[in-house]
Amino acid sequence: MTEHEGGDAGIEANTRTIEASVVTDFSDRMSYGGYLDLPTLLSAQRPISRPEHHDELLFIIQHQTTELWLKLVLHELETARDLLRADELGQALKCIARVKHIQKTLTEQWSVLATLTPAEYAQFRGVLGNASGFQSYQYRAVEFVLGNKNAKMLQIFEADGAATALLRHALESPSLYDEFLRLLARAGYPIPASVLERDVTLAWTFTPELVPVFAQIYGDTAENWSAYETCEELVDLEDNFQLWRFRHLKTVERIIGSKTGTGGSSGAPFLKRALELTFFPELYAVRTEIPG
User: Fold this and answer.
1) What digits encode the pLDDT tens for the residues 178-214?
2) Low pLDDT (below 70) residues in the chain
3) CA angle, corner 71, sides to 70 and 73, nearest 5?
4) Can you say whether the dihedral through the CA atoms of 5, 10, 16, 18 is positive or negative?
């Protein structure tokens, strides 16, 4: 018998000894499965193809895990927005840093779905009816919190009161970018009044008057470090979001080619146009103004 460092019982016959201190009676204690409500979570995957197709479980889990991560992304972005409103920049950046890691995980997830071949997907695609990722209200809420708002999207969720309420709140609240610009104004940067007083229910559009403000920040990063760091974190967010969109597009092209989407969209061409959407255009435009 070998032993762990510290003298604990180790491995015998390729079997690890359960330490005496390990809790094994959960008749009146909180367990791992109980805390996570695993019976509910693991019973939520219900393929509807008949006979059940082997790969439908992959398709369901891919999208369910995406929704779980989106729930956390939304939680973190909303908190970051509230912290910016309270001038708690450091804590807001911590939330944004977490979102960036989640975004990388979400982007890598597409490689799992890409193992689904066109022939395999074709065998159960019909059971989806008009169900489509386009109808993900959490995804839309994330876009809204980042400033890419579209009130017309709410009509898709009219049959779901909770989804409509969540999206309407995101639509009518200042975006993360709005709150950052307001923070800059409170810090003495010359943010135009038209920006601070804008209708926050509208999608953010390029505002050239902001480029000189960011040129000032990027022109002396030492003097403007906090603002500069936040600008770069926001650029990271947008870069990551666009990478996710691109991987989505390429995965769709790989699996269904140029077929229309189950939700009625044109499919890949519709997803390709999403790459033209932007969150923080001034933070990209300012790069042209930096000397050198």
Assistant:
1) 999 999 999 999 999 999 999 999 999 999 999 999 9
2) 1-9
3) 60
4) negative
